[in-house]
Each structure stands twice: as C-alpha cells, then as structure tokens.
Amino acid sequence: MRQVNTYRIAQEEITLSSAEAQGMAERELFSSDTVHLKECRSVARTSWSAKACTLYLLTAGELKLKDGKLISQGDLYWCNDDGESFVTGKNGASFYCIEPLQGIGREMPSQTIISADLPWLEFADPAERPTQPVQILLEGSLSVLRTRFDPKFIAGEHWHDFDTLYFISDGRMQFGDEGWFEQGDIRAVHGGHSYGPERPGTEGVEFVLVSVGGPVVLHWSDLEPPP
Predict the structure, then answer these.
(1) Residues 6+ apart with CB under 8 A from 75
(2) Model pLDDT for residues 118-157, shown as the tens digit of each residue
(3) Pairing mode, if any, of strands 47-49 and 35-42?
(4) Which of 28, 101, 157, 172 suits a disulfide with 196, CB 3.0-4.6 Å?
(5) Residue 174 and residue 137: Cα distance in Å, rounded?
(6) Neighbour count for residue 57 (Cβ, 10 Å)
C-alpha cells in the first residue's frame, strides 16, 4: 500500500462540534505520531483552562491571559505549564490548538509570541538559492515561522527533516500536483517527503509553517535526494 505523505484540511469542510454549555465548539482536525491538531471557537467572555504542552495559534478575536497579556489574530501562545487560563474578548475567539507529542517542545518555557513585535528576516539558504523573508515565531524542538511569497516567487521541489503543518493565512498556494490551497486551509506533510514546486496565487500568499521535531531546514531535492 502506498504511504500517504500529505494531507489536506479544507476550511469549508470543517464542521465544529457543539459545546454550548461551555461556550466552546471544537473539532479534531489531524493526528499523527508527532502531533494532534484541533480548531476551537469560543463565544465572548468565556473563561477556560489552557492545556500544557500546547501551542495556541489565534485566527480571530482576542484571548486574555491571567497575567493580563492580550493575544490577537496571528499571535501565538506556547503553554508548557498547567494552570494557565484564558478569557475570550468581546467578539469571542477562534484558534488552533497544536499539541506536539513525544516530549517535543518540553524544553521551552511558556511564552507569548506577538507577531507585530517580531522583525522580518532573510531566510538563509546554504545553497544560496533565492528565498522569501520570514518571521521566526518559535524556535526549538517545536519551531514556527511565518513567511510571505511574492506572486512571482516559486520554490522548487524540496523537503524538510520533520513533520510540518502549513496554515494558509492569506492568499492561495499550489503544492505541485496536490492542487491549490486556499486561505484557511491546512496542509500536513511527513518529514522527508519531497514535494513542489510551491507557487503562490496572483496576489501572493502568507502562511505559518510549524515544524514538529526541530528547526525548519530546507533541502532542495535536486541537490539532496530525500531519505
């Protein structure tokens, strides 16, 4: 049987379960040996406890931590402790819960990642091929970056060392023969699987890339054949 290496989660196919008594609705989206993923949506002014060893990626609304810090759309919170809690803002909140397994991420303390505070940096390629700028949101055994592709940029066939999740936050993007992924879609791919080229839509694309196991390292398939 052919191994399945990539998975598509289309936004229009996501139907959240009802949990009105808690003001929360959620759905399990993806599960593998290294990560569990679900989406949650909460009504306004709802209080709930965060789960340890979970990364929260906010896609709409606001979340207020018990220390008073606010995270908004595009921000993240890495929770590595029991006892943290959130209160949703006046318009509620929508977010992804990314739970790494096998102890991945445990070395990193709990932290709030405010996207607007982080610079855009050059993504250095050892092969000196063109790349696009990135924001490094989290770096460790669980690593996260955000990048934007100019409409004319194309990334050739490549692979990564670890399982990765793509969250398309703006625009659309084509992954080789996998077709087009639209804003709100999610793509999961196993480490060591070669794919591409990656092509943005006519308006470009922005996405968040989560590497479950270590930093994001880019291997061009024509220079380094996949394992």
Answers:
(1) 58, 112, 113, 114, 115
(2) 999 999 998 999 999 999 999 999 999 999 999 999 999 9
(3) unpaired
(4) 157
(5) 24
(6) 25
Cα 175 from Cα 180, distance rounded (Å):
7
Q: How far is CA 183 from CA 156, 168, 204, in A?
A: 21, 5, 11
The amino acid present at 2, given as its one-letter code, is R
149 near 200, Cβ under 8 Å? Answer: yes
One-letter amino acid identity for 85?
S
Q: DSSP readout, 56-67?
A: EEEEEEEEEETT
| Radius of gyration, alpha carbons of the chain | 17
Alpha-carbon span 155 to 172, nearest angstrom:
14
Q: What is the pLDDT of residue 6?
A: 86
φ/ψ of 64, rounded to 5, equals -110, 125
Looking up tokens 């955000």 gives 146
**Token pair of 108 as six digits:** 């990193």
DSSP classification of residue 224 = S
- Residue 71 · residue 89 · CB < 8 Å: no
Six token digits for residue 37: 């993923």
Backbone φ, ψ for residue 150 (5° rounding): -60, 145
